[in-house]
Design a protein that fits this description.
The chain is an alpha/beta fold. It has a domain of about 300 residues: Alkaline Phosphatase, subunit A (3-Layer(aba) Sandwich), CATH 3.40.720. It is about 30% helix and about 15% strand. It is built from 13 helices and 16 strands. It has a ten-stranded mixed sheet with strand order 7-6-5-4-8-1-9-10-2-11, sandwiched between helices. Strands 13-14-15-16 form a four-stranded antiparallel sheet, covered by helices on one side. Strands 3-12 form a two-stranded parallel sheet. A hairpin with a 2-residue loop joins strand 14 and strand 15. Helix 2 crosses helix 9, helix 5 runs parallel beside helix 11 and helix 6 runs parallel beside helix 9. The N terminus is likely disordered. The structure holds calcium ion. Calcium ion binds next to loops.
Length: about 500
């Protein structure tokens, strides 16, 4: 006879196992007369360097994004989604492996992702999903663990890309963002195994530097003044410690090529004609004006922001087309659609472009998820979530166990509107690429719902921000009287997270 305690344990275990198996397909062949529960398809759309400030659903005052906004309207918007390391290749390795950079081996853009790494994509392929990776891969070796791939070489160009399709080089003519969307739609129509659920990773290179607009959007924003961020002329008086040495200002670190003041040699003749028509007259006007100082910075910001936003509009077109394709193919109801970026981006905030820092524009990333029947339309989450969570989330949604080494948590309960009571209260961040482009020193950070503590351990400097009172992070409170208690708590939290995630010096 069971004691009360043993019975309680049995009941608890039954509850846990029952919950864990709720979305799992039955093992082995499906008995006659029973239909196997449909595992959801997963369409993962990721842009590169897409600022949440440049998405309508996040309240952009600079552009409109009807395609992307549809995911928010029909699904969940995450307002506190973060990356663990705000730079291109490391973010991709984190997403695929579910491991922090120090454990997946990709600390910076120079590292190679071990092609034999365990990834959620490889596990889904092994579990019978029909899988494809299309677009920007950026992890050096060709993708493994997918049924099909067609990827850009390294960063890839904005126009006329050569791609690697299942090991073979394929030359394309046209605008890369549109080509990636076309390839993704082509695979949905004819490439996938229609008898199995699918995973499609559609990863744009846009709107990465150097922001070359597509033919359909090259004249967008003509005659419009893009609003300037409040911190465009930030002099880092309060956060001067690491910022004094960075090289990512709109004022001084954009090249003539970035600003379209130099000839873009990558274009074919027809593309160049549209390009010249769009830029030549404006460039003549600019040269004649002889701007200096803040006036010159303002002009550079307008040119930079417009080209960036023009690139975003092509990404947004692609999202809209993919959603329409899911509708047309009758797949929308059983497909999880994710829109995210490999990190955030400074669209002039603090006077910068680029990413890397643990500041909000960079560390925080857009994340929108539609999952009909599971995610309430128009819902918003303020839970602290990370790109580290994607792998366990997709595995969980597919009814597959996440390997024990994966460090993230499945977002499925949050998506269903029931955040676990013990959900994380802080996020750990670590940037490594120094020395490197833009000269941003290494740092680690802890971010809670209300505060952020950053350790610039190469220089021994610290920063503390009150994210409620100071959303722009312009007032470093570290060492200020009255902040001893919060600083102590955050330093203890940082140590706890370092231990939890097995970070070593
Ligand atoms: Ca990126």
């Amino acid at each position: 006879m069971l004691t009360f305690r043993a019975a309680a344990i049995v009941l608890t275990l039954t509850g846990i196992l029952g919950a864990g198996c709720a979305t799992s397909p039955p093992a082995g062949p499906t008995p006659p007369g029973l239909t196997r529960p449909a595992r959801p398809n997963i369409l993962f759309i990721m842009a590169d360097d897409h600022a949440w400030q440049a998405i309508g659903a996040y309240g952009s005052d600079r552009n409109v994004t009807p395609g992307i906004d549809r995911i928010a309207r029909e699904g969940m918007r995450f307002d506190r989604a973060f990356v663990t390391n705000a730079i291109c290749a490391p973010s991709r390795a984190v997403i695929l492996s579910g491991l922090y950079s120090h454990l997946n081996g990709v600390l910076d853009n120079g590292d190679t992702f071990d092609p034999d790494s365990t990834t959620f994509a490889g596990l889904l392929t092994g579990a019978g999903y029909s899988t494809a990776m299309i677009g920007k891969w950026h992890l050096k070796d060709n993708p493994r663990g997918f049924d099909h791939y067609e990827v850009l070489i390294d960063q890839g160009p904005y126009y006329n890309p050569t791609m690697i399709r299942d090991g073979e080089r394929v030359a394309h003519e046209g605008y890369t963002t549109d080509i990636i969307t076309d390839l993704a739609i082509g695979w949905l129509r004819e490439g996938r195994d229609p008898d199995e659920p699918f995973l499609l990773m559609c990863q744009h290179k846009a709107p990465h530097r150097n922001w070359q607009p597509g033919p359909g959007h090259i004249n967008d924003f003509d005659g419009v003044a893009i609003p300037e961020p409040a911190t465009l002329f930030d002099d880092w008086a309060d956060n001067a410690s690491p910022a004094r040495d960075q090289e990512m200002t709109v004022a001084n670190h954009l090249s003539d090529h970035d600003l379209k003041l130099a000839r873009q040699t990558e274009l074919n003749d027809g593309q160049r004609a549209a390009w010249d028509a769009a830029y030549d007259a404006e460039n003549e006007e600019f040269r004649a004006a002889g701007l200096t100082g803040d006036g010159l910075t303002r002009w550079k910001y307008q040119r930079y922001a417009k080209d960036y936003l023009r690139c975003v509009q092509s990404v947004d077109d692609g999202v809209g087309r993919l959603l329409a394709e899911l509708d047309a193919l009758g797949l929308a109801e059983n497909t999880i659609v994710v829109y995210t970026s490999d990190q955030g981006w400074f669209l002039g905030e603090h006077g910068w472009y680029d990413k890397r820092w643990a500041y909000e524009e960079s560390m925080r990333t857009p994340l929108l998820v539609r999952w009909p029947g599971r995610v309430a339309p128009g819902s918003v989450s303020t839970d602290l979530v990370m790109n580290l969570d994607f792998a366990p989330t997709f595995l969980s949604a597919a009814g597959e166990p996440a390997p024990g080494q994966m460090q993230g948590e499945s977002l499925t309960p949050i998506l269903e509107g029931r955040t676990p009571e013990d959900w994380r209260q802080s996020v750990y961040y670590h940037y490594y690429e120094h020395p490197g482009a833009h000269n941003v020193v290494r740092h680690e950070a802890v971010r809670t719902a209300t505060h952020k503590l950053i350790s610039f351990y190469e220089t021994g400097e610290w920063e503390l921000y009150d994210l409620v009172a100071d959303q722009d992070e312009v007032t470093n409170l570290y060492g200020q009287p009255g902040t001893e208690a919060i600083t102590g708590r955050l330093r203890a939290e940082l140590e706890y997270l370092r231990a939890k995630y097995a970070v070593t010096d």
